[in-house]
Design a protein that fits this description.
CATH architecture: 3-Layer(aba) Sandwich
Strand order of the largest sheet: 1-2-3-4-5-6-8-7
Structural class: alpha+beta
Distance between the termini: 27 Å
Order of helices and strands: EEHHHEEEHEHEE
Number of strands: 8
Helix content: 25-40%
CATH class: Alpha Beta
CATH superfamily: Gcn5-related N-acetyltransferase (GNAT)
Strand content: 25-35%
């Protein structure tokens, strides 16, 4: 069993992006992520109806981080410090050896290769810092872009659920590039 601690919060830096903790000041961007039809298209989440729901979501996420139940980063541009999206490792198994990866990006940033830079760093964090054995990604089978993105980093098809498919990546003591 892994003893995880997200205190202090683990900031990650890539060539072009900072991965930082979600703050209450991100409420407008979180509201967009959780209410824009283009973002929600394949996620199966209910649409956020108010900025207050976004604030409640931020509080919930930060409480889970404090309890070491999950980790979520805001993806922020180094160039102009704007919020681009989020990426997380959540749904940790009871023994803390398996987690799900999840990511969302604001529509203005679709198709710019941002996740190709960020995902390897999050996978490396999950495998090398959290000591996860497996990272899974559950995805709508129609979300071909996300499936191809996961496959690029070695994720393999695992199983079909009711309306989604699950891909997985095993920790083979390697660094993801």
């Amino acid at each position: 069993m892994n003893n995880l601690s997200f205190t202090p919060f683990p900031k990650i830096s890539t060539a072009n992006y900072y991965l930082r903790r979600l703050s209450i000041n991100d409420d407008k961007e979180i509201f967009i992520l959780r209410s824009d039809e283009r973002v929600l298209k394949y996620l199966g989440k209910p649409k956020a109806k108010s900025i207050n729901e976004a604030k409640e979501f931020i509080d919930k996420i930060n409480l889970g981080i404090e309890k070491n139940e999950w980790i979520m980063w805001v993806i922020e541009s180094k160039k102009n410090n704007i919020f681009i999206g989020t990426i997380c490792l959540w749904n940790l198994s009871a023994d803390k050896t398996k987690a799900d990866i999840g990511f969302e990006i604001l529509p203005d940033h679709f198709g710019k290769g941002i996740m190709q830079e960020v995902i390897p760093e999050v996978l490396n964090y999950g495998f090398n810092k959290m000591k996860l054995d497996i990272i899974e990604g559950e995805v709508d089978p129609k979300n071909i872009k996300s499936i191809k993105l996961m496959e690029k980093y070695g994720f393999e098809y695992n199983r079909k659920l009711e309306s989604t498919v699950v891909y997985y990546l095993k920790n083979q003591n390697r660094t993801i590039k």
